[in-house]
């Protein structure tokens, strides 16, 4: 009987020497964008706070200008990463930090439109239209990415607000640009989607306790209620803004009572989830005339948001943010 031939060993490529060094933008982490959105939101809230106090807008414009530069650099860096391998965006969307990061990237463009709108209606309209279109694209790609994941990885998370309700941020610029009807449509449509996500998240929270590292994401639940209140007030929608603000107050109170439990695992890039909801809440209080409460929240935001944003952006600069958030490499 003839002996069986042994299978040929696999051929592995020889090791590179010297080892290949990744390009400058090959592993840009989408997780940097939530913190940048927080700084943009702080600038918008500061603009409302200074107006309520009758003070000049110079400080708010300075914050918005600095945040716009950081956002533009981060967006350029991620586009450079995609230029090297366009499919890398689908790899980033496989993980939670990538999904929340890419959603806040396009939401940040909507916040930029709101920052620019008082100075240039034409420029503001252009940015807003592009931002809404890009966010729609990110939403579609996110749905495709979720469908390819196992069922246990498709659970509803607070980050779904960013992907599916994030369009509401476009409503901050729309009334200023003369597109009040767009703002009204966004308010009602996004409020309905947010209610569905809140309901599903509440059921999940009752059934099982989220792991400590993911608990900071619970703060995202504050953002949709705050934005609905602000945009609804700007667009002249009756009743809904007041209801949304009361809901935001309730969510904020629950978060404050649970802050030790939420932050149990210590600082991480997930803490960026505290930034933009806090600035959105301050803006909502000012938008509905709760100026004293708005000042209190704004002062807290001035202490919290820059500190978190600095640490997250520093992690990006050191290269650690990509590693801890599983950012894909081009």
UniProtKB/TrEMBL annotation:
The keyword Transmembrane applies. CDD domains: TDT_TehA_like (cd09322). InterPro entries: SLAC1/Mae1/Ssu1/TehA (IPR004695), Tellurite_res_ion_channel (IPR052951), Voltage-dep_anion_channel_sf (IPR038665). GO terms for molecular function: monoatomic cation efflux transmembrane transporter activity. Keywords: Membrane, Transmembrane, Transmembrane helix. This is Tellurium resistance protein. Residues 1-23 are annotated as: Disordered. It is found in: Membrane. One of its GO terms (cellular component) is plasma membrane. The chain crosses the membrane at residues 28-46, 58-80, 101-121, 127-146, 158-179, 185-206, 218-237, 243-262, 269-288, 294-313. Signal peptide: none annotated. It holds the Pfam family SLAC1. It comes from the Bacteria. It comes from Paragemmobacter kunshanensis. It is a multi-pass membrane protein.
